[in-house]
From TrEMBL:
It comes from Siccirubricoccus soli. The keyword Oxidoreductase applies. Coiled coil: none annotated. Keywords: FAD, Flavoprotein, Monooxygenase, NADP, Oxidoreductase. This is NAD(P)/FAD-dependent oxidoreductase. Belongs to the FAD-binding monooxygenase family.
Length: 538
């Protein structure tokens, strides 16, 4: 088929999650013709795919919803301070219906390739049916944690029981009663699954490679009174979220750990441990995530909590991280996680002592034993931040491959674009503040910045824009500089791009903007108001 007869749009958006839906809303408002392609059968992205038992927010529900519509804010009632996945998916469906987004979204359509054509200054996009489409602008809204990964061990396909990756959980109900269940992985996902299914299963075996520092979520229902207060307070709350580094209601404590007496310190940490949400991570003393001594003291506080909550001292020691400090990896939020290990039918297998050798027809074989199972749950995470890009064959000017360009680490300008890939924008891309953020807040900022750029392009008749290599190099320097004082850069995790299940992803890279959302927002605004410095518009 000749290229110029392909269905053509002003913009193509990849993904109909929180980011893609909002970008669609804004570009349609601008009067552009927009087509969204979504791999899933419905809207919701992360909340469409992650239906595993126990999936829920770690952000306060009312801080997470979209902020762009007063009507939406006032009409939606969150039922809990930290809503569970089914409620969030209902919310996103409500948004899609309310703003009539579905007619512009094509479901069950995974984008496999995108190629920039210089002659026409357009992108050509291919989906898994083989169909092709064209658009002036391409916006990726493909999620930082959407490319799921499985362990690189033999035999995964041989297993005869049920097996699921948490982010590919079936839509039909899964029965647990009486079953012998394995969970591999103890990240934020594994923790939610384990604490939820432990009381339901016949027998639970947790395969842990690295323990994490988990802290209590303290979730509860929102009362009618609270509901009214939340709705009346939205403007002030969003003002606060604009000021805090991660757009949470929790703001860093300006004091150092060493400004106070040991007694005051202990009392403050007790208070944080008893409060809901991420305050313990984000509103702790300012040096807990940067000063190794402060970090060690607080890690010791949490270790004592774990020892108090887990009855068997051997299991307790295994659940306490030894090689990384508190908060240097994503902190899983839990309810009953540590107590689950006190149940007689729950056991912990430490993969540092006995690594998995293979999956068999009937279960899992480690170097020490054969464990029989009816079900294996892979809570093994994602090829984070760049993985979703690597899975699409994206080609820029002269056939340049994005995957190859980013092989040693991403190169971007503002985390929103990459030189050599004109007219392409990356919501929640690498080097963006979004993955250190209460994500919808940073998504809204990304989307609004992109919308302003495309409005500008439309009004000024601009058909091509691209970041300059110099601006990109400068941004990379800035990113590295911001990350340099942070303890998390010395630890393997998805945030540093390490995933040994993926070829070539065994070295740490700087993938995130560490300056905080307010500073990031200011940088983006500066670029826009200077007439897009660092970019060539033509
Ligand atoms: P994470 O946080 O990347 O956790 C994945 C877990 O799976 C982690 O405990 C890994 O151990 C473990 N894992 C991965 N591969 C293997 C193999 N091959 N063998 C044994 N164990 C393995 O992903 P989540 O889904 O929990 O959370 C992702 C984010 O989504 C989360 O931070 C939230 O922000 C939302 P490891 O630590 O690598 O030793």
């Amino acid at each position: 088929e000749p290229t110029d007869s392909l269905p053509s749009f002003d913009a193509i958006i990849i993904g109909a999650g929180i980011a893609g839906m909002y970008q669609l809303y804004r570009l349609r408002e601008l009067g552009l013709s927009v087509q969204v392609f979504e791999a899933g059968s419905d809207v919701g992205g992360t909340w469409y795919w992650n239906r595993y038992p126990g999936a829920r927010f770690d952000s306060e529900s009312y801080t997470y919803g979209y902020s762009f519509s007063q009507e939406l804010l006032q009409e939606w009632n969150w039922s809990e301070h930290f809503a569970a996945q089914p409620e969030t998916l209902r919310y996103l469906n409500h948004v899609a219906d309310r703003f009539e987004l579905r007619p512009h979204i094509r479901f069950d359509s995974r984008v496999t390739a995108a190629r920039y054509d210089e002659a026409s200054r357009r992108w050509e996009v291919m989906i898994d049916s083989g169909e092709r489409f064209r658009a002036r602008f391409l916006v990726t809204a493909i999620g930082p944690l959407s490319a799921d990964t499985l362990p690189r061990v033999p035999g995964i396909r041989d297993f005869r029981g049920e097996s699921f990756h948490t982010s590919r959980w079936p839509r039909e109900p899964v029965e647990f009663a009486g079953k012998r269940v394995a969970v591999i992985g103890t990240g934020a996902t594994g923790v939610q699954v384990i604490q939820t299914i432990a009381p339901l299963v016949g027998q639970l075996t947790v395969f842990q490679r690295t323990p994490n520092w988990c802290t209590p979520l303290h979730n509860r229902k929102i009362t009618e009174e609270e509901q009214a207060r939340i709705k009346a307070n939205y403007p002030a709350m969003f003002e606060l979220l604009r000021r805090t580094p991660g757009c949470y209601i929790h703001d860093t404590d300006p004091r150092s750990t060493f400004d106070v007496t040991p007694e005051e310190r202990e009392a403050f940490w007790e208070k944080l441990y008893g409060e809901p949400g991420f305050g313990i991570w984000m509103a702790n003393f300012r040096d807990v995530l940067t000063d190794p001594k402060a970090n060690a003291l607080f890690s010791d506080f949490v270790a004592r909590k774990i020892r108090q909550r887990v009855k068997d001292p051997v299991t307790a020691e295994k659940l306490i991280p030894k090689n990384h400090g508190f908060g240097t990896r994503r902190v899983p939020q839990e309810t009953f996680y540590y107590e689950a290990f006190n149940l007689p039918h729950v056991r912990l297998v430490d993969l540092q002592e006995e690594p998995i050798e293979r999956v068999t027809e009937s279960g899992i074989r480690t170097s020490a034993a054969d464990y029989p199972f009816d079900m294996i749950i892979y809570a093994t995470g994602f090829d984070a931040i760049t993985g979703s890009f690597d899975r699409i064959d994206i080609r820029g000017v002269g056939g340049l491959s994005l995957k190859e360009k980013w092989a040693e680490g991403p190169k971007t300008y503002l985390g929103l674009m990459s030189a050599g890939f004109p007219n392409m924008l990356t919501i929640v891309g690498p080097h963006n503040a979004s993955t250190r953020c209460n994500i919808p807040r940073c998504i809204e900022q990304n989307v609004e910045w992109i919308t302003d750029l495309l409005r500008n392009a439309r009004d000024r008749g601009i058909t091509r824009f691209e970041a300059t290599p110099e601006a990109e190099a400068e941004w990379s320097r800035h990113i590295e500089e911001l990350a340099s004082g942070m303890l998390y850069t010395q630890v393997d995790s998805w945030a540093t791009g390490v995933n040994r299940n993926v070829e070539g992803k065994d070295v740490r890279r700087i993938l995130q903007y560490q300056g905080g959302a307010p500073q990031y927002r200011a940088k983006c605004e500066e670029v826009a108001s200077s007439g897009y410095a660092g970019m060539v518009l033509a």
